[in-house]
Amino acid sequence: MSSRSATPSQFTTIVAAKDWTPTSWQSKPIKQDVDYPDQAHLQRVLEKIGRLPPMVVPGEIHRLRRQLADVAMGKAFLLQGGDCAELFDYCSQSPIESKLKVLLQMSLVLVWGARMPVVRIARMAGQYAKPRSKPTEMHEGKEILSYRGDNVNGYAPDDRTPDPERLLGAYFHSAATLNYVRSILGEGFADLHHPSNWNLHHVKSSTLRQEYQSIVDRLTDALDFMKTIGADPNAGGSHDGSPLSTLNTVDIFASHEGLLLEYEQALTRLLTDPNDPSQRKYYNVGTHFIWIGDRTRQLDGAHVEYFRGIENPIGVKCGPSMKPEELVDLLNILDADKRPGKITLITRYGVDQVEKYLPGHIQAVQDSGHIVVWACDPMHGNTKQSVSGVKTRHLIDITKELSQAIRIHKRLGSHLGGVHFELTGDRVTECVGGSMELMDAELLDRYETHCDPRLNYEQALDMAFLIAKYQEK
Ligand code: PEP
Ligand code: MN
Q: Distance between CA 392 and CA 371 in Å, rounded?
């Protein structure tokens, strides 16, 4: 899909998708658009964001692409997770540390279970915009605009008017979050979470606790052995081929849903490809990985148009409404050069629908020749109303969709390359079940999400243990 054209410099070539520019999405129909009352204000903010420095650089984006190519080829496993809706308030020491801690602990268990490197992508440092099923909602008998995420409007019912300053807020909160992540990872944060210190007291069933403890013990032994032979996994260096070496702390990538295209455009920059300094390409420098949501993936729509032009690895959410032939058309647009791992298909059907839709999607992709990363999001198809009246998800449904996805991939000669969870490192009570046996009646104790229900710390670890167990088999 590359077309070459002359550039101002005689030494570099712009490599871009055919007929694509960072603004070409503007001529296409758009879903989930935000209606800003003051357009001039919006333009001023976007110009300002357009001058601010990149938050990530092309070298990191290419490194993630290489790692995702490994996942697509079955040589690594992907763990992607974080909040449904990140809040500006989460840009603070403790929430950042607890999210990193749970992601690192999960990845340690997964490395051990899968016996392969784990690629870690956080839904973090920019996961602010939310698509909504309805533009308005009722509050105390009055119709008000829906909450669209911290980068659009406020959660408080009297703060729902979209405010462009919030886009600038998104940039600075993302930058501050990433800055702290980079700092603590660089200083060996992972060392503090050695499995021998893990507390498994929350696990109610003693058989399950023994099972977890045995995984932790074997993991601890493996890490101690690595240290003894001088191959300290936290000592530095990236993928050297050994799974435990990927516990190297530098590689946690950031991601968010690419929903507000004005913001994404302002962070799209023409930069030199570090692998080939004679070429300049378009990178989204606001995050490493962005995905298209299930509501904005229309073939002729603005989001697909924007996404087809950037070098970053991208995700596509696939739900029951995706037709197999539509999926192939989408891949042909987004991955015209058929580059392994360029696209991560994040499937989210729901436990009752996975068997109906996943096989057809796998077969269509296999026949198309695209080599994708298959990731299972067992959260979004399994949202239910709780008895207490809040949105919840049951660990039993999450577990079943995940195990079925693993089985279906195996049956069809494919492989599940990764998982995508909504989770937090905090002890919230938003999902039912898990080894702590959280009950419906306890949901209101610490129900804190502004959007979808997340796995808490213990439930997130449950998922990692579960996947490790499957992979051991
Ligand atoms: C999400 O990931 O929070 C989300 C809105 O998902 P989906 O697009 O799959 O509904
Ligand atoms: Mn969500």
A: 34
